[in-house]
From TrEMBL:
Residues 28-157 form the DAGKc domain. It comes from Sphaerospermopsis reniformis. SMART domains: DAGKc. InterPro entries: ATP-NAD_kinase_N, Diacylglycerol/lipid_kinase, Diacylglycerol_kinase_cat_dom, Methylgl_synth, NAD/diacylglycerol_kinase_sf, YegS/DAGK_C. This is Diacylglycerol kinase, catalytic region. The lineage of its organism: Bacteria, Bacillati, Cyanobacteriota, Cyanophyceae, Nostocales.
Length: 350
C-alpha cells in the first residue's frame, strides 16, 4: 500500500470513528438537567418560549426548571444546581445571564447548554450555536461538547469580552426598555449618541512581558467574539480555545475617524484579515492589567461592573459547552509528498 492509499485509509477510519463516537454520545446523552430561564430576556413571549423549550427537551431530559428574578440571579441558581450534583446546566437568556451562570461550572466537568434569547446573543454566535430555540435544543440533545476558554475580570466571569471606554458608555446608554423594543438596533442608536461624547484617554496595558502606554477611545479584551462585536476585531478572528485573550485598541481623534475605524473593523472581520489602520492596534496575551487616566467604565458580557483599573486573566479550557455536531469531510485530493511532483494549472479555454 503506497503513502496516498494509506492516508486515504486512515482518513476513512478516522471518519468512521467520529461517527461511532457521535452515536455513542447520543446513547450516553444526559438524562437530567437544570434549566435556568431568564423571563425578561429578549423580545419574545417568555411563557411561549419556555413551553417550546420544554416540549422539545422534556421527552428526552428530566428538566429541573428555575426562573431568574431581581432577587435571585443566574449565578445563584447555577451554584445551587452544582451543589445538588446536576448532570448538566442549560441556560436560556442573554449573554449576561449566560456569563453569570457559567461561573458556577468553570473548571468542572458539568456540560453547559445554551439557548440564546437575548439582544446580542454574541457567545452563541461565536461558537456557531444556532440562534433559534428549536435548533439550540437539538444541539443539546445531540450531546456533543467541547471545551472553551473563559476569563475573569474584576472577579467576574467573562465568556465574551470586556469593553473599556466607548463600548461601556454605549452599553450603559442602551437601556432595557430600548433593547426590548428595538433589539440590536438599540446598541447602534446608543453608539451614534455616544459619538458626540467621544474622548481619548491615557491607557497603560501590562502583559507578562511588556508594558504599553498609549491613548485610546476604546479598549476591548475578548475571550470569544463574533464578527458583530466590531470593537474586538483587531486581529480579526478571535480564537476561543487557544488559552489567550485578544486585546484591541481603537484610538481615533475625531468622530469621522471613529466612524472610519469602526467601518474598517467591520470590513476586516467580514473578510478575516487583520486591521491596517494606524489608529487601531491589537495583541494577544494570557492576561492583562489595564489602567486608565481618568478611570473608565468597564462592561463585561453586556453588564457594567465598575471602572478601571482591571486585571483580566484567561482560564484555558475552563468551560464545557454543548456545540453542534459537524460531520468531518473526507478530502477529495491529496498530492503532496509524491516523488518528483509537479502540478500545472491549465488555462481556461476561451
Amino acid at each position: 500500500m503506497n503513502n496516498e492509499q494509506l492516508t486515504i485509509t486512515e482518513t476513512i477510519i478516522n471518519y468512521q470513528l467520529s461517527i461511532i463516537n457521535y452515536q455513542l454520545s447520543i446513547i450516553s446523552m444526559i438524562r437530567s438537567a437544570c434549566l435556568i430561564f431568564n423571563p425578561v430576556a429578549g423580545q419574545g413571549d417568555p411563557d411561549f418560549e419556555l413551553e417550546q423549550i420544554r416540549s422539545i427537551l422534556e421527552p428526552e431530559i428530566d428538566l429541573d426548571i428555575y426562573l431568574t428574578t431581581e432577587e435571585v440571579d443566574a449565578d445563584e441558581l447555577a451554584r445551587a444546581a452544582v451543589e445538588r450534583g446536576v448532570e448538566a446546566i442549560i441556560v436560556s437568556g442573554g449573554d449576561g445571564t449566560l456569563s453569570a451562570a457559567a461561573e458556577a461550572v468553570v473548571n468542572t466537568d458539568i456540560p453547559f447548554g445554551i439557548i440564546s434569547r437575548g439582544t446580542a446573543n454574541a457567545f452563541a454566535a461565536a461558537l456557531n450555536i444556532p440562534n433559534t430555540i428549536a435548533a439550540a435544543c437539538q444541539t443539546i440533545l445531540q450531546g456533543k461538547t467541547r471545551t472553551v476558554d473563559v476569563a475573569y475580570c474584576h472577579d467576574h466571569p467573562m465568556i465574551l469580552l470586556a469593553g473599556i471606554g466607548f463600548e461601556a458608555e454605549t452599553v450603559e446608554k442602551a437601556d432595557r426598555e430600548t433593547k426590548n423594543r428595538f433589539g440590536m438596533i438599540a446598541y447602534i442608536l446608543a453608539g451614534i449618541q455616544e459619538l458626540g461624547n467621544l474622548q481619548r484617554f491615557a491607557v497603560e496595558i501590562e502583559t507578562e512581558d511588556k508594558i504599553i502606554q498609549t491613548l485610546a477611545s476604546a479598549v476591548t479584551v475578548a475571550n470569544a467574539a463574533p464578527p458583530t462585536s466590531v470593537l474586538a476585531q483587531g486581529p480579526s478572528g478571535i480564537i476561543y480555545d487557544d488559552g489567550l485573550l485578544d486585546l484591541t485598541i481603537v484610538a481615533p481623534e475625531t468622530k469621522t475617524g471613529a466612524i472610519a475605524a469602526t467601518f474598517h473593523l467591520f470590513q476586516t472581520a467580514a473578510t478575516g484579515t487583520p486591521v491596517k489602520r494606524d489608529d487601531i492596534g491589537y495583541l494577544r496575551a494570557k492576561q492583562f492589567k489595564i489602567t486608565t487616566k481618568p478611570p473608565q467604565k468597564v462592561v463585561i458580557d453586556g453588564e457594567i461592573v465598575g471602572t478601571t483599573p482591571v486585571e483580566i486573566k484567561c482560564i484555558p479550557a475552563g468551560l464545557t459547552v454543548f456545540v453542534p455536531y459537524v460531520k468531518e469531510e473526507i478530502p477529495t485530493e491529496k498530492l503532496d509528498g509524491l516523488p518528483n511532483l509537479t502540478v500545472e494549472i491549465k488555462e481556461e479555454s476561451t
